[in-house]
Amino acid sequence: MDTKAYIESGVIESYVLGLASADEAAELELLCMQHADIKNAVDEFAALIEANAFNNAVTPPPTVKDKVMLALSEEFEKEKNKIVPVIPLHTGNTDAETVTVAPKPTWRYLAAASIILLVVSTALNFYFYSNYKTSNEKYVALLEERNSLQAKNDVNLTRLNDYEESMHIIQNPDVQKIDLPGIKGHENTFAAVYWDSKTKDVYLLPAKMDALPSDKQYQLWAIVDGKPVSAGLVEDCNGLCKMSNVPKASMFAITVEPKGGSQSPHLDAMVVAGAVKI
């Protein structure tokens, strides 16, 4: 199993944050028992979330405690001064003797404790929810950043591979280079064709080619027995552009054609041309 790919898949983060499905959670817990690196990854991310929660703790407003304690104080003061009748049992006098007695405040204390627990519970719920929300937002942001970096890395890796392949083609002794300088009116334009004498594969390097309108496109032509033969449309590419295979040619040229190419070249739209050295 490729544990590195599994760790980078995002399942561990979803599991720790409580977002994983039951099947994903069961699979991860089983893999933790089989692979120490996966178990370590789970512990590390859980520790990271816990540290982040404490670093971003939200303290309940102090007014909450003051209001609760004030309400309890007023309630206890009422109970303290409450007048209740007491009837002595050792005499036959049924007249109530009025005395000041402090009743057992057991249920009041229980009520007070319940209120305090409610306040603490509310504060903790708010605390954990705030930290969860913050951690989840940071996790999503990190995940998006990782995906963006991964996409950029893939693009750069593709470019690097294309450049390396281009260098191998250019350095191949079987490949002939045909320079295509700009014709009159296009002196600052330049391209080069790399033609494999064995495979007859053709590669184009559009070194200095002006950008074209969206409805126009460059097209490469090979002059075969005095007639132009299309060698393909010039697309965006990294390094060398792979063109059509050309068995034989005496010359190569590039013209500007309508988007999608033409069956035959517009010679008045030629920009570069070069003869094949025999």
TrEMBL record:
GO terms, molecular function: sigma factor antagonist activity
UniProt KW keywords: Membrane, Transmembrane, Transmembrane helix
Database matches in InterPro entries: Anti-sigma-K/W_factor, RskA_C
Any one Gene Ontology cellular component term annotated for this protein: plasma membrane
Domain Anti-sigma K factor RskA C-terminal, first and last residues per copy: 111-266
Any GO BP: regulation of translation
One Pfam family here: RskA_C
Listed transmembrane segments: 109-129
Protein name: Anti-sigma factor
Species annotation: Panacibacter ginsenosidivorans
Phylogenetic placement of the source organism: Bacteria, Pseudomonadati, Bacteroidota, Chitinophagia, Chitinophagales
